[in-house]
Amino acid sequence: MTLIERIALCGLHQLDPERAHGLSLRALAAGLAPLPGPVTSGRLKCRLAGLDLPNPVGLAAGYDKNAEAAGALSRAGFGFVEVGAATPRPQPGNPRPRLFRLGADRAVINRFGFNNDGAEAIAARLSRTRRAVPVGLNLGANKDSADRAADFARVLAICGPHVDFATVNVSSPNTERLRDLQGKAALSALLAGVMAERARLARPVPVFLKISPDLGQDELSDLAGVALDSGIDGVIATNTTLARDGLKSPHAGQAGGLSGAPLFERSTRVLARLSQLTDGRLPLIGVGGVGSAEQAYQKIRAGASAVQIYSAMVYGGLSLAAGIAQGLDRLLLRDGFASAAEAVGTGRKDWL
After folding, report:
1. Does residue 59 contact residue 25 with C-beta atoms inside 8 Å?
2. Contact 260, 106 (CB under 8 A)
3. Predicted local confidence at residue 64, as pLDDT
4. CATH architecture of the domain with range 3-351
5. Catalytic residue among 74, 171, 172, 212
6. What does the alpha-carbon distance between residue 347 and residue 286 come to, in Å, rounded to a whole number?
7. CA–CA separation, 114 vs 90, rounded Å?
8. 221 labelled catalytic
9. Where along the chain do its domains lie?
């Protein structure tokens, strides 16, 4: 991290977290942040569900909810970028305050509740976005929808022509009863609708499913079976957790989803178990607590074909993406892997 970035982060941490979040996005969109462009090497280049990535380190959904800075983010060192979540209609989300820094834990709690400008506005921005790496969209459902399952397909119909991949998000803890859609029958029906909508696109895009880290063993087994049967292209493991084990920060008791460093072990164990259940038949993207190249490498060795980061940037800045990719390259070289793909799953047993 440069001195300028350290000073900027220090200033942002003096502000309300949601205001700081918004200011950082506006600075990116205005071109005020130095951007390295895609970071790549022969070892880092990889293919994920048909997408060619310069490196396997992506940005998780939630930072750029409305695709306001997607073009800039695609030049920030990431191998791929996910924006959203988008819902069919605009919605304000939950009342403020709804974002909390847990500095002592290097963590974040949010209860945003899918606040966004709606699919039409987001599609319009994405249609104008010049991108240096693949950009995808997290699909959500309106809180007051009479048919939440249909909402996911509706967002894909509107935004699908302007994205490189889409993610079905039924794992956010901040929309009441949304996680109920992870049940076997409900999820099968929901994914069938999304895949039918995908087939109607002029350019069908990869579809991923984002899951909760709070699933039990039987639930995870059911979900793996549904994912394999549905024809989706991969699983993102995992979203935020409702667990609060071992936290020290004053905001630890706030309602919402916990992300950041405390999630790393829980999410990696879910990832490894899912890798075992799917036996390499489905690409996995590891998310949750990644704040260093070593942690990204552990996710890959646990079974992930790629990883995503977000909360760690609250403490490590935007340059963290390029730093993790470069560090990952060195780790692969150290251990004799010619590519990130060669390392996938080689340490899975350590997490089971």
Report:
1. no
2. yes
3. 98
4. Alpha-Beta Barrel (3.20)
5. 172
6. 14
7. 9
8. no
9. 3-351
